[in-house]
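User: Hey, my collaborator sent me this sequence without any context and asked if I could get a structure. I don't really work with proteins. Can you help?
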Amino acid sequence: MAEDSVLMGVNGTFMRGMELNYYVTDLGGTFVREARTNDCYRMWSIYDIHPAIMRTPGEGTNLDLEIWSVPKKNLPKLLDTTPTGLTLGKVYLDDGSYVFGLLAEPFIVDGQFEITQYASWREYEKTIKK
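Assistant: No problem. I've predicted the 3D structure and written it out in structure-token form, which is a compact way to encode the shape of the chain:
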């Protein structure tokens, strides 16, 4: 990874092949690898448009992520494209390391459908597109 880049964990619509992946690639992001979160994350479907994950120590499961290298100078632009209620934070991975990622603020998941059991936005989307 270049010194002027940061590792960013993305899930859901920002992942490869998904509708908002171009936000990451247009800002110079390059795919690094697939990964999984530590087992303390839960995930919700926000109006079946995009997922939101939240760290919940003592609860949750390992969720699918993609790790991308994003130029530091473009990180504010990426954050500007994200839906209200998502914020930048540290996402802990199952190997004990962490990357930056988008995490849900509590208000955004209030009243939304929890999809933690799918462990992946792609898996959940299969159920709503039937």
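In plain terms: The first helix runs from residue 21 to 26. You can pass these tokens on to your collaborator as they are.
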